[in-house]
Amino acid sequence: MRKELLNKANLAWLLLSIVSFVVLSILMKVGIIGSYYSITLYNIFINIILAVSLNLVIGVCGQFSLGHAGFMCIGAYCAGIMVKMMPNMTGLAIGVLIGFALSTIVALIVSIPTLRLKGDYLAIATLGFAEIVRILVQNMEITNGAAGLNGIPKLTTFPLLFVCAVIAILVVCNFTHSAPGRACLSIREDEIASEAMGINTTKYKVIAFVIGALLASLAGALFACNFYVIKPDQFTFNKSIDILVMVVFGGMGSMTSSVLAAVAIGIINVVLANFSEIRMIIYGLALVGIMIFKPTGILGTKELSFKKLFDKRKEKSA
Amino acid sequence: MTAFLQQLVNGLSLGSIYALIALGYTMVYGIIKLINFAHGDVYMLGAYCAFLITTYCGLGFIPALFISMIFCGVVGVLIERIAYKPLRHATRITALITAIGVSYVLEYATQYIMGSEVRTYPKLLTSASFHLGPVTITMQQVYIFVITVILMVVLQFIVQKTKMGRAMRAVSVDEDAARLMGIDVDKTISFTFLLGSALAGVAGVLVGIYYNSINPLMGMTPGLKAFIAAVFGGIGSIPGAMIGGLFIGIAETMVTAYGSSLYKDAIVYIILILILILKPAGLLGKNVREKV
User: Fold this and answer.
1) Is A318 part of a structural domain of the chain?
2) Whose CA is closest to B268, among B245, B286, B285?
3) Domain spans of chain B, in order of start
């Protein structure tokens, strides 16, 4: 296949995203998706960004991060504070950029020492760092402590959210198919072997981790400008686990399944909204069950790929 | 100076509780290289078990302590058999996610059954206190410290002198070689979970008495802190877990006393990140080269 930007597969993807955008917008305009369900829809799109970014770290690179809520918290507060000072899109853009800068610095500080080590240290270090972020936010003047920020103007519109989610998926998928992404895949499969092949394992692990952190902070910014209020206790360990559940349910390493899992879990959460304790028990049991019986997740590493679809059809006709 | 000594005493009693939990983490990690996230919740179950026994059956402190030890030990073995054993040779991420799942199930099942409200713990020990020079020591603190020391000595004896202890050490060095030498690896791992969980059960009862209140999510934070204590001391090392637990306990009380209690959790995580940067193998840990 020739390398063209506008090949058949890419056009098919473009068409798919435009169609889904138009359909969802019309459904919301007409009122088939009411205001209650449109909140769910916004939530699902934010969760898609979070799940895809965590999947990059866990599924593609094989590193276990439990601090995704921390990066989301950084992004949310940076955007929230900026937007309160400058309640327009420029403010949001500056807030997002500050969030990016802060998340990058923090991600580097956390990951460089811990990713040199093998084993589960990253999980604990990221968990600890996410708690530190939350405790700092809880005690700082500018973040208004445990009460959180109120009255953040709602700047997250559906088109913006949709475009951000598509960008997040694009970034992650293209990264996976690039040379550094391939290096990450080989680290996931066998770290020692890839080191022996001359791959600088720490470098690529850090790159994947930082990209994941950036996308999480973007999701946080969109989150802050969507719900008017952000509080430190929205970004606890449980939030990280919620994201992890999406990645694990769908299948680690498959972006298609992360998106599907984010949608499915968004719907399940609405159905089980009144039974939150039972929902948590089910999540726990499902985590254990999936790991024991189908550790690759429901879809495994399968991806929806138009390229393969077209190739297969060509083979058949030939 | 008086205040400092007083805080040291408080830190020692809090630290001994952390040390008891950390022992379970370090033994399990030593033997199957798994961060047992559910360990903190086993400790919560221990607290609830003793709460139910003393409140509804009217038993005293010592029987309650033993019953929750046995209960937690059995729970630990069940968790290992049901959730971890099928994954013994799976990747580490798989095992870790399972552990988080088990922890969720324990927490929210307890919350569902017992309710999410904070329960007041019955007064099992005298709240009497005595003065040692300028420092006030409560009898509860003495009990906590003495019980911890006794259990650690017993544990050290089991691990170093008994046949089972030797098997545990052998499995933690090399599982396959141990199997070839005729050691029943499954039984040894279950025994490790039994010991670790029983210690967590004791810690749960002691915390209930010390803080006077329990709730279904109480296992999370102390569990993590105890894990950090284990990392600090050198994970896999039993004396390391004791030192780490005491250190974390003292650091936390000192920060509460001289800094701000708001930052007492943050300091523990900062210690963790520092130790990972400076000496990842921990204080008493050995640097082990990974073999292909």
Assistant:
1) no
2) B245
3) 16-220
